[in-house]
Each structure stands twice: as C-alpha cells, then as structure tokens.
Amino acid sequence: MDNLYFLATGGGICFGGSEPLLWSSFIKEFCELCPEGWHFTMETSLNVPRHHLEKVTPYIDSFIIDIKDMNPAIYQAYTGKPNRQVIDNLVWLNTHAKHKDKIILRLPIIPKFNTEDDRKHSRQVLIELGYENFDEFEYVIRNK
C-alpha cells in the first residue's frame, strides 16, 4: 500500500532528527530494501566523518543541510564544534550528489551569534563552492 501511495504522490522518506548520518549503515540497508522509485531526503548538519556521507549519498535524492554559519568562529561558538568537516563534506557532496539542484542549505540568523552580514558572507562562500539553493530564516527564541 505504501509503495502505491509513494509512487502516485512522489512521496518518500526524510531522515532527520539529531544527526541521521550517524546511522548511515542502517539508512543504507533501509534504502536498499525499499521499492524502486521511492524518494529519500537527508536532513543533516554534515558535521560527521566523510565515510558516513559516502555510504548513503548514492541513495539520497535531496539534502537539507543545516549550515548555521560558514565563519569557523561563529559556528564553533554556537555548536561547540569546528566546521572543518562540514566544509570538506560540502566540497565532496558538490561532485557526488545525485541531484545537486536538490540540495538546500539552511542559513539562519541566530540571535546573539550572527548577523545579516554574516549570513551574506556565508551565502557568498557557499555560492563559490557551487551551491545555489538557500533557505534563509531567523531562529525564534521563545522565553520559557
């Protein structure tokens, strides 16, 4: 039943939440078990060792990549981790993705961490890396 529905609607499955690439072996096996014609999307930060990305890229039709900021200092201040792996994986993905036009890069304004000028700089760096689809938005921080 799911197969007919997915094929009729162009639907599929999105792997997201936490960092799905850390489950690359499971995702690869899952994709191999699914019927031909299903679409798979990966929502990721790309801040993982390359072998995880290499394992699933042949199966993934579209990527939604949460960039945060391309400035290493801003990225580290917000995430607590360097963004070198992110950059290296972006370079690799640019030449290995099934559908480069279906890669969306999320560029938020994060209050107290980056500015509109920072986002413009990030966008320019990503354009120079060969990317063109961006989702720009502002994080909303709600008081608890």
TrEMBL record:
<dbReference type="GO" id="GO:0046872">
    <property type="term" value="F:metal ion binding"/>
</dbReference>
<keyword id="KW-0004">4Fe-4S</keyword>
<keyword id="KW-0670">Pyruvate</keyword>
<feature type="domain" description="Radical SAM core">
    <location>
        <begin position="11"/>
        <end position="117"/>
    </location>
</feature>
<keyword id="KW-0479">Metal-binding</keyword>
<dbReference type="Pfam" id="PF04055">
    <property type="entry name" value="Radical_SAM"/>
</dbReference>
<keyword id="KW-0949">S-adenosyl-L-methionine</keyword>
<dbReference type="InterPro" id="IPR007197">
    <property type="entry name" value="rSAM"/>
</dbReference>
<protein>
    <submittedName>
        <fullName>Pyruvate-formate lyase-activating enzyme</fullName>
    </submittedName>
</protein>
<keyword id="KW-0408">Iron</keyword>
<dbReference type="GO" id="GO:0016829">
    <property type="term" value="F:lyase activity"/>
</dbReference>
<dbReference type="InterPro" id="IPR034457">
    <property type="entry name" value="Organic_radical-activating"/>
</dbReference>
<keyword id="KW-0456">Lyase</keyword>
<keyword id="KW-0411">Iron-sulfur</keyword>
<dbReference type="GO" id="GO:0051539">
    <property type="term" value="F:4 iron, 4 sulfur cluster binding"/>
</dbReference>
<dbReference type="InterPro" id="IPR058240">
    <property type="entry name" value="rSAM_sf"/>
</dbReference>
